[in-house]
């Protein structure tokens, strides 16, 4: 059976009347010609829109590859905005760029992200989104030889993106806030000393005037990645006590434009706020979600999920101020079916034994908070479906534009 073919406008109307808007030629708006590739940032993730054709309404139809899936997409030209619509049969993620941001020649666009689930007939804001009208450049693998030959780096850490610059290994350089192009002696936050030992590369960053207050990114030769960065561990070292592992670090040449999401080591109670990116692992697959700029009257954070299935996001605390307090991470479909990961401070370690999962060494390995997976079909009963995990991702893609 052949399915009817819809134009971008027809699909927009089908997904909900609130999405409809008058079309116009709006010649100032950029338009991807068939075969063109744009880079997009939705939900804290980088994706690629590839245009297939221009439809009868003058809009572009194509595919966006993001979150491990290839999703049907449109670039829709409206009187008051340009819209990127990325979706499946259950609904769409939208990136609306207002007309004021559509000046001739503009290549980097910033808009408002929204998620629309078909049967809920409403849109929910999900933070900022970005579109670049050019393809993301290919990232070459970083050979180990680049450690000594490259002098300018950017580093993703649980404390944000850091720019580092040094004259050569074994000599003092400077570090400060990224991007590295703005790093000068006047704007640097401290000194950096890079050196190699038998295990790999060590980057020591002096924080302030105290000679005993350092952060280290330690990168082994086995931390090379074909996607253009090196990975290691981020360690806090002071003159008092044992050095503390506080998460992962990822080092990339400063010309490599895409920051790598790095997880921080979680602590209890979980720190929840707006504009956060979370991963959630369920038996159904791995979802990545972004909390938006809004929350409900009871403090529940809302947003959207990308992954095996689009869905709205809710994160809420339960049994607050009791020994049984925990956090629910909810994925809601357009049919009001729920998937959830329920996490608590303690987990079952053995038969009849529960332990604090935040005090064991396992939390430093993958930064995953373990929990119980739950399924609730609309109108049905709560059903346990196995184990789950969540972890927060640290990525400047939520607040910073792509640099390339």
TrEMBL record:
<feature type="signal peptide">
    <location>
        <begin position="1"/>
        <end position="22"/>
    </location>
</feature>
<keyword id="KW-0732">Signal</keyword>
<protein>
    <recommendedName>
        <fullName>Phytase-like domain-containing protein</fullName>
    </recommendedName>
</protein>
């Amino acid at each position: 059976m052949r399915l009817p073919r819809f134009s971008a406008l027809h699909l927009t109307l089908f997904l909900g009347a609130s999405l409809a808007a008058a079309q116009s030629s709006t010649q100032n708006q950029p338009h991807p010609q068939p075969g063109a590739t744009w880079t997009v940032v939705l939900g804290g993730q980088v994706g690629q829109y590839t245009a297939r054709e221009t439809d009868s309404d003058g809009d572009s139809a194509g595919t966006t590859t993001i979150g491990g899936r290839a999703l049907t997409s449109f670039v829709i030209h409206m009187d008051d905005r340009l819209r990127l619509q990325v979706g499946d049969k259950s609904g769409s993620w939208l990136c609306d760029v207002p007309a004021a941001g559509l000046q001739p020649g503009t290549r980097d666009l910033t808009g408002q992200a929204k998620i629309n689930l078909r049967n809920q007939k409403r849109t929910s804001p999900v933070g900022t989104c970005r579109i670049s009208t050019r393809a993301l450049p290919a990232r070459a693998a970083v050979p180990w030889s680049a450690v000594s030959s490259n002098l300018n780096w950017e580093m993703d850490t649980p404390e944000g993106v850091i720019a580092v610059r040094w004259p050569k290994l074994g000599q003092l350089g400077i570090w400060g806030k990224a991007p590295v192009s703005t790093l000068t002696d006047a704007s640097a936050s401290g000194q950096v000393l890079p050196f190699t030992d038998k295990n790999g590369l060590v980057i020591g960053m002096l924080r302030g005037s105290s000679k005993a207050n350092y952060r280290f990114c330690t990168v082994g030769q086995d931390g090379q990645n074909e996607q253009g960065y090196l990975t290691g561990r981020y360690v806090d070292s002071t003159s008092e006590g044992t050095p503390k592992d506080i998460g992962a670090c990822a080092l990339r040449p400063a010309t490599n434009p895409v920051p790598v999401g790095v997880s921080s080591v979680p602590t209890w109670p979980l720190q929840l706020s707006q504009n956060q990116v979370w991963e959630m692992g369920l038996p159904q697959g791995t979802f990545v979600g972004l909390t938006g700029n809004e929350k409900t009257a009871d403090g529940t954070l809302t947003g959207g999920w990308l992954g095996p299935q689009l869905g709205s996001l809710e994160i809420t605390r339960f049994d607050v101020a009791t020994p049984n307090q925990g956090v629910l991470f909810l994925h809601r479909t357009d049919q009001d079916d729920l998937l959830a990961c329920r996490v608590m401070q303690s987990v079952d370690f053995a038969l009849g034994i529960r332990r604090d999962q935040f005090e064991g060494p396992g939390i430093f390995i993958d930064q995953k908070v373990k929990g119980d997976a739950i399924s609730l079909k609309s109108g049905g009963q709560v059903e346990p479906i196995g184990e789950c995990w969540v972890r927060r991702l640290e990525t400047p893609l939520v607040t910073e534009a792509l640099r390339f």
